[in-house]
Structures are given as structure tokens and as C-alpha cells.
């Protein structure tokens, strides 16, 4: 059942009856042949068809034609069993992921020589990556049940050999190495005891795989987890001794399309082709039924309901993807308020509105919606995946927007999640805190755009933002960020005075300075530190505003008014009668030339170089803005008499 | 399984593997007659036939094949066991 999912690449559409004819026709003329090859690669191709498509690619390259938009990638192959057919299948499979793959193979059984000799073809060629495709037959793998020392030696010798290979490659080509893990044998010698007993095949291979992951693969290298792939389809199916005997096939021939797709995914990921956004249809994709007809009570998404559970699996996967940084969007043919009801009201829903970066529920055609989603997120269409139960919609998008990945889905919704996961659209090469937050960043950003389009009056818009501003003196916690803003802000920067971090630290202690670091949060999230102000006491009655800078991200929100209000308040408490503002023009800060004028300051001086001085009495009142204020700062010590 | 059924199933396979939509598959056909029939495509042929007929051929059986007629006989023997 699900073995077919992997062997047949069931998430890809079936190739047309006339696939062969289309292959031949593809090179009748060479204009756009690259796009045609990629289009043909998008079907679920068997090994023979991949080989055939590789021939099309060959013909195009031999004729000197451009295969754009496929981007070139040269892969070195150090393998003890990658047959000629696998190489051809790799090249066709890579086209599916937008890659024009060329392979440079070391000869069979020549892995060590090819890696270590500077004269080998591998080492003389300019490569983009090297795939070290070895299996358990590549090096001696003595089975020594019960002998831990011998087992440790075996792992150590494999470690040595693989490190030598990697170092040999790196010395000549400073490119990532792709290391394969080994697929363990399907049967044990001792039954269930094998994994516990050092020296058995299973135990030794576990050790070798762990060694590869922990010690051989450098951070810039990649892992092709063949062990995981083989286990997913079943070790008993993966290994085929008969096919090895017949034709040195390293694994069962029926998995060639799967294996090549996985290699292609890694190469695609290296070239930034991993997808970034999952667009979800709603009716019968995220819940059973049609919300417009069935209502919140009628849709099937409850725990304990087998139909509902199937859709919860999809939601669970989508949520997990969102939490690892994949952006979620919704595209549904529904009224917007109706479509949102389950997210807002249904207690069993796992996905909520806050998880969705862009929510397009309307009666437009889906292609338009997908284009709008891509534009809102500033993504290319090739960053999108559409999950939709409706085959007609899937076909429409495949025709109109071929760059969008649209997985074929089985009839049973219980398999939707599995199918999406198997398709591997979101191949990752690393995972960091930044990645985790990425989906939230896109969501926050997109929602700000949406909201601005809906609000027609400024006051209403500003109020809807539910802004909260926090004022704090300079402190050690904020020092680095304060210094960063001081040194990087160029546009909204009144005086462009630069201070080192040490100087900023000194300001924290300076009794004659009033400092502010300003944070802003709104309904969409935390904008972080967005403004820095430094006031210097000139005399008993005067503060001069030495530095006032702000992040352009929060323009047009009245933040400057809230800040002025705060400065006036603090100045009054200090017994100061007037604030002096200074504007020093530079090439980049023309936008704040009238900043003080806008805040009600009067101009008191203008120098030849354009510097202007401004003054405001501290009993002035700043414009009222719908921003809640929190303050956590120290007052200046009382001015000396 | 009758011979003509086997040939009916084999013909599209041969045409696909050897990239020749006009290829006529008959009992006397050998590798010498087909330009694309080399050791690599021979492996592809065997594997594709195995999948299409749901069977596996032993190495010794494959070694004894002289022409397509022999292959059809082999397939027939295997299909009788199902």
C-alpha cells in the first residue's frame, strides 16, 4: 500500500500515454527545451522513462542548446555501485528540481584512488558537490558477533577510510560532500538480539552510521540518509541480492526513481530550491465537509471521529511545518468570514488564524489567489506548495502555474499527511532559531499589509494596531542593540552621531545625560528596539537632543509624538524649561529635515552648512496617539544648584 | 497465458526500453537486430518484464536465452505457476 507511495512517487502526476512521443518532440526545436524537459520531469517517471528523458537532455546539450531555466550543477560520484542507469536517472530526476545535472563518476571500485589521487577525473574537475554513495559492500565489514574490540576496529577503519575520502576530495574541490548512511540488513543472525550485541551486522552498521553523522560529516557536508529511506520502504524490499548479482544494482531497481529524487532534493536544497510556503485548501483538505454548507457544527474535524482524525493529521503536519519555519497560507473558495469560522470557533481545530500568514478566502480563481499569496510574501511561485483535495483545482494550477508544486492526493484523506511528507518539498540543510521564527516573521509582515489595505481611516488603523511603547534608559542588556542602531541608522537619524559600544556604556552612567531605548509591540508582534534618544543637559534649564534616531519600519504610526510626549514629561520632572533639537543634514537623512517642525518646535538657528537648531518649551503638549506607554527608566539626578 | 497475450504485453515494453515505436517484436528477434539493445538496456528489459509479469527470473534462466521466442517460453513457464 504505502510502499507504492514511495516506489511510484505517488505525489507526482502520472505521465501521459504519449510520454515517449513528447520526449522525441521535445528536441524538434531547441527554444525553451529546458522548460519542456523540466515539465516532463514533473511526472512520476519510472526508471525507463527517466533514462529516456536523460537522452532528451543529452540531445539538447550535444546540440549546444541552452537548457535554462535549469541551473547547472556538477556532481562528482564516488560510488561502489551506482550504475550507468542510476546516473542517467539522476540527471532526469534533477530536472524536476530545476537542476541541469552533470555527473563525473569515478570508475567502479575506484573510490579510494579517485578520492586520493590529484590526477583523478573527480579531482581535476570543477565540481559543485561530491556524492559518496557507498554501501556495506564498499569496504570490508567483518561480522564478529560478541567481539566488541573487533567491532570497534571495523567502525574505526570505516571512519579512517571515509575521512581519507573526504579529505582527498576537499583538498582538490572545496565543496560539500554528500555522505550516505548504510542500509542495515533485513534479517538478523540472533533475531532481536542483534542490535544489542556488538559485532553483529546490524550493530556494526548502526555504529558506522552514527560515526558518519557525528564524526565524518562536517557542518558544510550533507547527509543522504539511505538507512532512513530504506527503512521507510522496508529493508526487505530495498535490498535485492538477485539484482546485485545480475547487474550490480546496489538496491532494488524499483527504487531508482525514489533514490534519484532524494539526491535531487538535496542538490535542489543546496541551490535554494526547497519550498518555503504551504498553501492549504480548506474544505475536505483541512476538515471533512464544506463549511459554507455544513457550518461549524457539521464539518468533520473532531478527535475520536475517524474522518475528523484524518484531517487533524494534515493540520498536525502543517502546524509542525509552521513551527520549523515553513510559512502557511490559505486559499479557499469561500466567503472570508465563513472560512475563518472553524479557525475561530471549532474547539478541535489545531490550526488557528495566528498560524496562517496569508488568508485568501474569496471567489476568485485559485491561480489568482496563489499569485497574490506569492506576491504578498515576496516569494517566487516556485516556493509554493498547494495542498488541495480537488483534482480539478490541482490540474488547473499545474497548467496555469507549473512552478507551484501540487501533490497528487489519494482518495483517502487519512493518507494526505503521509503523501505530503513523502513528497519532501521542504528539504532542509540546517535548522536554527532564525528558521524557527521565520514563519512568524512572514506572518506578521503579511498581516500588516493585509490590515492596511482593509482600514480606511488612519485613526482606526492605528488604534487597531494596539501598539504599546516601552521606554527604558540605556542599560547593559540593550547596549549592543543601541550601539548597533546608533551606528547603522542613516535615514531617520537627526544628527548621525556615532558612538562606540564603550561610549554607549559610558552614557549609561553619565549623570548629565537622559537616554532612551524604545521598544514597540503591536497586535502582530514585537518590533524590538525601534528608537534611540540621547539628551544632554546643557544648563539647568536646557536639554539638547544629541541623538534621535528611529527605525523606518514604524514610520507613520505616531511613534515620534509618543516619544516627544515622553521627553517633555521627563524634562519637566528634571526641572528643565526647554528642549533644543538639532538637525544635521547628510546625504541620507533628508526625510527628517522637518522632523522638529512637525513636532511643533520653532527654528532658532540655521548654519551655512544647513544645520538647523530648534526649540520647544517643556510645557508644550505632544499630539495624542493611541499608543499605550510603559516606562522603565531612571530619572536624572537633580541638577546641581 | 497464451503466446499472443504475452507478445501483446511485451511489445510496448520493448518499444519503451529500446526507444523505438515501430519495433516489431517476434520470436526470432535478438539483440543483434536492435541497435539500442546493449547490456544496460538488456538489464532494463529484464527488470521491466519482471515487474510487468509479476515474476523474477533466475540468473541461470536468463543465461540460457537465445532470442525473444526463448524469452516468451520462459515467461509462459513462470506465468503458469501463478
Brief write-up:
With 641 residues, chain A is α/β, with parallel strands linked by helices. In chain A, 42% of the residues lie in helices and 18% in strands.
Labels describing this entry:
heterodimer, A: 641 residues, alpha/beta, Rossmann fold, Aminopeptidase, 8-stranded mixed beta sheet, B: 82 residues, mainly alpha, Non-ribosomal Peptide Synthetase Peptidyl Carrier Protein, Chain A
Describe it for me?
- The complex is a heterodimer of chains A (641) and B (82).
- Chain A is globular.
- The longest helix of chain A has 25 residues, at 148-172.
- Chain A contains 25 helices and 17 strands.
- In chain A, strand 15 and strand 16 (612-617) form a beta hairpin.
- Chain B is built from four helices and no strands.
- Helix content of chain B is 59%, strand content 0%.
- Chain B has one domain (3-80): Non-ribosomal Peptide Synthetase Peptidyl Carrier Protein, Chain A (Orthogonal Bundle), CATH 1.10.1200.10.
- At the A-B interface, helix 4 and helix 12 of A face helix 1 and helix 2 of B.
Please render the helix and strand layout as text.
The complex is a heterodimer of chains A (641) and B (82).
Chain A: H1 2-7, H2 19-26, H3 33-41, H4 47-62, E1 71-79, H5 84-96, E2 99-105, H6 111-116, H7 121-124, E3 129-133, H8 148-172, E4 177-180, H9 201-216, E5 222-224, H10 226-233, H11 235-238, H12 241-247, H13 256-270, E6 277-280, H14 291-298, H15 306-323, E7 327-333, H16 336-345, E8 356-362, H17 366-377, E9 384-387, H18 391-400, H19 416-423, H20 433-454, H21 458-464, E10 467-472, H22 479-488, H23 501-509, E11 513-522, E12 525-539, E13 542-550, H24 559-573, E14 578-583, H25 595-598, E15 602-606, E16 612-617, E17 627-632
Parallel strand pairs in A: 1-2, 1-3, 3-4, 4-5, 6-7, 6-9, 7-8, 10-17, 13-14
Antiparallel strand pairs in A: 10-11, 11-12, 12-13, 14-16, 15-16
Chain B: H1 3-17, H2 39-53, H3 59-63, H4 68-80
Helix pairs in contact in B: 1-2
Amino acid at each position: 500500500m504505502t510502499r507504492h507511495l514511495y516506489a511510484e512517487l505517488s505525489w507526482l502526476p502520472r505521465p501521459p500515454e504519449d510520454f515517449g512521443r513528447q520526449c522525441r518532440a521535445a528536441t524538434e526545436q531547441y527554444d525553451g527545451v529546458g522548460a519542456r524537459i523540466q515539465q516532463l520531469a514533473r511526472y512520476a517517471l519510472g526508471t525507463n522513462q527517466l533514462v529516456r528523458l536523460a537522452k532528451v537532455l543529452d540531445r539538447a546539450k550535444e546540440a549546444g542548446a541552452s537548457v535554462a531555466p535549469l541551473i547547472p550543477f556538477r556532481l562528482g560520484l564516488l560510488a561502489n555501485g551506482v550504475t550507468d542507469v542510476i546516473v542517467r536517472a539522476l540527471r532526469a530526476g534533477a530536472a524536476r528540481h530545476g537542476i541541469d545535472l552533470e555527473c563525473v563518476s569515478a570508475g567502479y571500485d575506484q573510490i579510494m584512488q579517485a578520492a586520493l589521487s590529484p590526477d583523478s577525473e573527480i579531482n581535476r574537475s570543477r565540481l559543485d558537490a561530491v556524492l559518496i554513495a557507498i554501501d556495506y559492500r564498499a569496504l570490508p565489514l567483518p561480522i564478529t558477533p560478541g567481539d566488541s574490540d573487533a567491532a570497534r576496529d571495523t567502525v574505526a577503519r570505516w571512519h579512517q577510510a571515509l575521512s581519507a575520502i573526504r579529505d582527498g576530495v576537499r583538498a582538490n574541490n572545496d565543496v560539500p560532500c554528500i555522505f550516505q548512511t548504510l542500509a542495515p540488513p533485513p534479517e538478523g543472525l540472533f533475531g532481536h538480539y542483534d542490535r544489542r550485541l556488538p559485532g553483529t551486522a546490524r550493530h556494526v552498521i548502526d555504529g558506522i552510521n552514527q560515526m558518519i553523522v557525528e564524526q565524518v560529516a562536517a557542518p558544510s557536508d550533507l547527509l543522504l540518509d539511505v538507512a532512513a529511506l530504506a527503512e521507510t520502504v522496508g529493508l526487505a524490499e530495498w535490498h535485492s541480492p538477485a539484482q546485485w548479482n545480475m547487474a550490480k544494482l546496489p538496491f532494488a531497481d524499483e527504487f531508482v526513481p525514489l533514490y534519484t529524487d532524494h539526491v535531487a532534493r538535496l542538490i535542489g536544497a543546496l541551490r535554494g530550491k526547497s519550498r518555503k510556503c504551504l498553501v492549504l485548501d480548506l474544505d475536505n483538505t483541512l476538515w471533512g465537509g464544506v463549511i459554507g454548507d455544513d457550518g461549524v457544527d457539521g464539518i468533520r474535524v473532531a478527535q475520536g471521529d475517524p474522518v475528523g482524525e484524518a484531517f487533524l493529521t494534515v493540520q498536525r503536519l502543517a502546524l509542525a511545518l509552521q513551527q520549523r519555519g515553513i510559512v502557511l497560507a490559505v486559499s479557499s473558495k469561500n466567503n472570508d468570514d465563513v472560512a475563518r469560522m472553524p479557525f475561530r470557533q471549532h474547539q478541535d481545530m489545531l490550526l488557528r488564524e495566528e498560524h496562517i500568514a496569508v488568508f485568501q478566502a474569496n471567489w476568485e480563481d485559485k491561480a489568482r489567489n496563489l499569485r497574490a499569496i506569492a506576491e504578498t510574501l515576496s516569494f517566487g511561485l516556485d516556493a509554493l506548495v498547494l495542498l488541495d483535495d480537488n483534482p480539478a483545482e490541482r490540474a488547473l494550477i499545474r497548467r496555469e502555474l507549473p512552478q507551484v508544486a501540487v501533490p497528487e492526493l489519494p482518495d483517502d484523506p487519512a493518507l494526505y499527511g503521509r503523501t505530503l511528507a513523502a513528497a519532501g518539498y521542504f528539504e532542509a540543510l540546517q535548522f536554527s532559531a532564525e528558521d524557527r521564527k521565520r514563519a512568524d516573521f512572514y506572518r506578521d509582515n503579511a498581516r500588516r499589509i493585509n490590515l492596511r489595505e482593509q482600514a480606511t481611516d488612519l485613526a482606526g488603523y492605528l488604534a487597531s494596531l494596539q501598539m504599546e511603547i516601552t521606554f527604558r534608559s540605556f542599560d547593559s542588556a540593550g547596549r549592543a542593540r543601541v550601539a548597533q542602531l546608533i551606528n547603522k541608522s542613516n535615514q531617520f537619524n537627526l544628527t548621525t552621531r556615532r558612538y562606540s559600544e564603550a561610549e554607549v556604556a559610558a552614557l549609561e552612567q553619565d549623570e548629565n545625560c537622559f537616554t532612551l531605548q524604545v521598544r514597540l509591540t503591536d497586535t502582530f508582534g514585537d518590533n524590538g528596539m525601534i528608537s534611540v534618544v540621547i539628551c544632554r543637559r546643557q544648563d539647568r534649564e536646557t536639554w539638547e537632543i544629541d541623538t534621535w534616531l528611529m527605525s523606518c519600519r514604524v514610520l507613520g504610526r505616531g511613534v515620534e509624538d509618543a516619544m516627544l510626549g515622553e521627553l517633555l514629561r521627563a524634562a519637566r520632572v528634571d526641572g528643565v524649561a526647554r528642549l533644543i533639537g538639532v538637525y544635521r543634514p547628510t546625504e541620507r537623512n533628508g526625510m527628517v529635515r522637518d522632523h522638529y517642525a512637525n513636532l511643533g518646535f520653532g527654528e532658532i538657528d540655521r548654519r551655512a552648512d544647513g544645520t538647523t537648531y530648534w526649540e520647544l518649551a517643556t510645557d508644550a503638549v505632544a499630539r495624542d496617539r493611541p499608543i499605550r506607554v510603559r516606562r522603565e527608566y531612571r530619572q536624572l539626578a537633580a541638577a546641581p544648584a | 497465458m497464451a503466446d499472443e497475450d504475452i507478445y501483446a504485453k511485451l511489445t510496448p515494453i520493448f518499444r519503451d526500453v529500446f526507444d523505438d515505436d515501430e519495433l516489431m517484436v517476434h520470436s526470432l528477434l535478438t539483440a543483434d537486430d536492435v541497435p539500442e539493445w546493449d547490456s544496460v538496456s538488456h538489464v532494463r528489459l529484464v527488470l521491466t518484464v519482471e515487474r510487468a509479469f509479476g515474476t523474477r527470473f533466475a540468473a541461470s534462466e536468463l543465461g540460457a536465452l537465445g532470442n525473444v521466442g526463448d524469452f516468451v517460453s520462459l515467461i509462459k513457464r513462470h506465468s503458469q505457476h501463478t
